[in-house]
């Protein structure tokens, strides 16, 4: 009985803390799923793609990112850095590979508890 309880506890702990919003977003990017990505958008987003940056509405950012991901379809993603220890702030850096180039995508999210919204997305060439 103790053994079963221990296994159940470890499994629940991993499910609760093993995955986070950065992992979810990495999977969304890997699938090129702009529709799901847009569900994470805040009302306005600071968007920077190759040194062209501005603050856009969620709808504008959706169109701009849809164009980027259509031109650069994903082949793989890899999380290289994430900050998930703060209850109100999450940050991640994901290497995004496509047949047309490799990119470094930085994501900043703000929120409370389990509801986080993307406030900043930066896409730069990955020079590594």
From TrEMBL:
This is DUF4783 domain-containing protein. InterPro entries: DUF4783. It comes from Pedobacter segetis. Pfam families: DUF4783 (PF16022).
